[in-house]
Structures are given as C-alpha cells and as structure tokens.
C-alpha cells in the first residue's frame, strides 16, 4: 500500500492520482452489478482479490484513519474516487459488504481499542474479513436490550452460549459483531457487552432461513460453549448499550457517511421501473397510472431529502443520532410497502408474471419487492419502535411505563417465568 497522504491534499490532485490508478488497474464494468443467489468461497475469491488490489494501491478506506490502514483523508476524497471508479469493476460483497463497511467497522472505530482496530481493520480493507451483526434473538427483537445470549468469564477468557436470529449474510461472513449479556445482576441496559465472534470457531452453527421470495440470505446462529478471549471484547465490558445505539444509528442511515468511508446511495432521479411496468402493460396513458407514478416520484424525492437531512444532523452532532435516524427508518418502513403496492397496481398481470428463463426484469423485480416490502417496517427496529424513539427522545413526550428498566435483569426474567408458569407447585 502507498504511504498515507496528508488530509490537506487538494481534491484535484487526488482526482488525477485516482484516475490514473483506476485506468491502469481496474477493468471497465460490463454492466450493472449483480448479486448471486448464494455466495460461495469460489464467488468471493475474485472479490477479495480485487479488494486487496485496491488496498495495495492505497485507495481502500480513504476516509478511515491512516493508523488502521486507511488514507486518513476526507469524505470528499472518497466521493472523488467513487466518481472516477463508477464505470469500472469494483468489489461486491452483497449485504456483508454493506454491514462490514457501512455499519460494523465504523461503529468499532468509535469504541474499540487501538489494539483491536490494528488487528482487524487492515484485514477488512484488504478483503480478508467480512463482518455481520449478531444482535436480534428469538426472544429479543424490538426490545434489543433484553438479549439473553450470555458470555461468562472462564479460565482467563469467556464462554459464549445462546442464539441469534435474522443475521443477514452470516453464512458467508468471517466475523459476527455479537451483543451478549455479561451481567445479570444489573438493569438490562447496563449488563451488555459486544464481542467479535469468528463464524468458523468451534461451537458456532449457522443455519440459513428460507424466505418468502425463496432466497436464504437471513440466518440463525447457535453458540455452544464458544471460547472467546479478552482481545475479542469490543469496547468496555458491560458498556455495550451506547455502542448499540451508535450501530443502530448507522444501520438506520444516520451518522456521517465519513464513518463508513463511503458515500450515500444516489437518489432515484425518476421512477423508470414504474414507467417500464406501465409501458409493458399498455397503461402509460391511463390517468390513474400516471398519478401513481407521480406519487411514487414525489415519495422518492421526499425520502431522499429526509435522508440527506438525517445524515447532515448526524454529521453535525448534538442530537441523539440514533433517534434522529429513526425519521429515515420510519419513512423507509412506510414508503416501501406503498411503492411496492403501486408497482403491482400499475403493472397488473404483467407485473406478476415473467419468463423464468430470462433475466429478471421490471416485472420480476416488482414481485420480489412486493414480497419483501414489509421487511423495512420490521428489520432493524419496527415502525412502532421508531415512533417511540422520535416521540420520547426527540419531541420530549412522556416515556411509556416500564416495569423492568431499573430492576436487575435476572429478577425480571424470574417474574416473567412466574407470570407465565405460575408459582412452583401450582397445577395447570
């Protein structure tokens, strides 16, 4: 890798440097990037090699700290590189790439020890590590602080047991950033710790979950006496909740994109997909269809404006970025089902059928979007949880009554067991 640049290097000098390197080292893109139905080591190998080439050239982690393998430059330098590389083949890692570069590592950069970051971040930038999140559980989804997977100190390290749910892309990742309970004697928000869990470690089992659209990118994990070291702790022991809020802010679109080293996804300029559906159905002249397309266009632009504002507020600091990000998350959870419904209404039968032997076009995409349209209103926090965060944390409205937030979590679970099963000795 080249020596890190000074952060004051001007953008035009950097653009010239990036353009020359890109043209000498990257191949022109053959078309829009595609994602395989299932990632395999063989499919990942060329992507990892391409990431390594960019890292060796000094263009990975452009806005990440130089002491951890990045360039230590600015988000503007990152945008310049992406602009110059837009027409070229760059690495694609599917959802694991998003969780690694946009969520997990940016979170760690703000809380993990320098030793931890020196060990893992350069390997991420070189394409050797992909990370996913392990936090939701069968009994802890919206109430994320109620996780019951636990790590217990043992023989100078930790012993992890429990289970996680809905982990996107875990089947082909290298590490899971895992939230577990390490103290049952304190209220639930205060006894949590984050760990780095190698997915190939003894005692880790990953099961893929078949989804409604016949894909299986979501996974469930089981931990059976998984051995971890103190070096695997991310942040402070029992200090996991503030880290969780930081991670959720990034997942929901808040915070600065500088933290991820990437730029925001460009806004949809016009709903060309809906126009294509209307054209295929012969309904482009239908006034109602034209009104639906216009409504979708307005919604797309409103969502883009809100997300830009959320990112700007997160970058400026001051307000709780996780709660501010709830505006964008709520809007996505609300607009996505509406847009999916519009697509089927516009396309009719033409949107619900297509030639299975042909590449998936607007029609197939519309069906898949409809099947998955409720996911944004649930995954990463339900719409109801976003409304609670906005009302309580941003608008200052009274909190909902809580019986468990100030009590030791072990007592809370004993009460739950008593309410569900009755006192010992009772007969049903």
From TrEMBL:
SUPFAM superfamilies: Acyl-CoA dehydrogenase C-terminal domain-like, Acyl-CoA dehydrogenase NM domain-like. InterPro entries: Acyl-CoA_Oxase/DH_mid-dom (IPR006091), Acyl-CoA_Oxase/DH_mid-dom_sf (IPR046373), AcylCo_DH-like_C (IPR036250), AcylCo_DH/oxidase_C (IPR009075), AcylCoA_DH/ox_N (IPR013786), AcylCoA_DH/ox_N_sf (IPR037069), AcylCoA_DH/oxidase_NM_dom_sf (IPR009100), Mycobact_Acyl-CoA_DH (IPR052161). Residues 10-128 form the Acyl-CoA dehydrogenase/oxidase N-terminal domain. It holds the Pfam family Acyl-CoA_dh_1. GO terms for cellular component: plasma membrane. Residues 239-395 form the Acyl-CoA dehydrogenase/oxidase C-terminal domain. Keywords: FAD, Flavoprotein, Oxidoreductase. This is Acyl-CoA dehydrogenase domain-containing protein.
């Amino acid at each position: 890798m080249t020596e890190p640049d000074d952060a004051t290097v001007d953008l035009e000098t950097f653009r010239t440097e990036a353009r020359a390197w890109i043209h000498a080292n990257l191949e022109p893109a053959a078309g829009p990037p595609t994602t395989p139905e299932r990632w395999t080591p063989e499919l990942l190998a060329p992507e990892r090699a391409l990431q390594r080439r960019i890292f060796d050239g000094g263009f990975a982690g452009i806005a990440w700290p130089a002491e951890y393998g990045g360039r230590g430059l600015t988000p503007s330098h990152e945008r310049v590189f992406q602009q110059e590389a837009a027409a070229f083949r760059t690495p694609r890692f599917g959802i694991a790439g998003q969780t690694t570069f946009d969520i997990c590592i940016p979170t760690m950069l703000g809380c993990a020890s320098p030793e931890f970051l020196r060990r893992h971040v350069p390997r991420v930038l070189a394409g050797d590590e992909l990370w996913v999140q392990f936090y939701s559980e069968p009994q802890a989804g919206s109430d994320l602080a109620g996780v019951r997977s636990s790590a217990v100190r043992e023989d100078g390290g930790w012993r992890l047991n429990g289970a996680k749910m809905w982990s996107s892309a875990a089947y082909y990742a290298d590490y899971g950033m895992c939230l577990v309970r390490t103290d049952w004697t304190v209220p639930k928000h205060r006894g949590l710790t984050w760990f780095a869990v190698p997915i190939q470690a003894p005692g880790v089992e990953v099961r893929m979950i078949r989804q409604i659209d016949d894909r299986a990118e979501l996974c469930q994990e089981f931990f059976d006496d998984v051995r971890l070291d103190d070096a695997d702790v991310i942040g402070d022991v029992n200090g996991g909740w503030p880290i969780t809020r930081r991670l959720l802010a990034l997942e929901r679109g808040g915070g600065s994109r500088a933290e991820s080293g990437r730029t925001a996804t460009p806004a949809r300029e016009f709903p060309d997909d809906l126009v294509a559906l209307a054209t295929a159905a012969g309904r482009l002249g239908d006034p109602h269809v034209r009104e639906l397309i216009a409504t979708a266009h307005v919604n797309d632009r409103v969502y883009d404006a809100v997300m830009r504002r959320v990112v700007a507020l997160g970058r400026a600091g001051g307000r709780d970025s996780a709660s501010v990000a709830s505006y964008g998350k709520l809007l996505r959870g609300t607009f996505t089902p509406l847009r999916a419904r519009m697509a089927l209404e516009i396309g009719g039968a033409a949107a619900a059928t297509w030639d299975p032997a042909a590449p998936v076009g607007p029609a197939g995409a519309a069906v898949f979007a409809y099947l998955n349209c409720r996911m944004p209103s649930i995954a990463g926090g339900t719409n109801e949880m976003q409304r609670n965060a906005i009302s309580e944390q941003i608008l200052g409205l009274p909190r909902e009554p809580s019986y468990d937030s100030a009590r030791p979590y072990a007592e809370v679970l004993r009460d739950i067991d008593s309410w569900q099963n009755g006192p010992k000795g009772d007969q049903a």
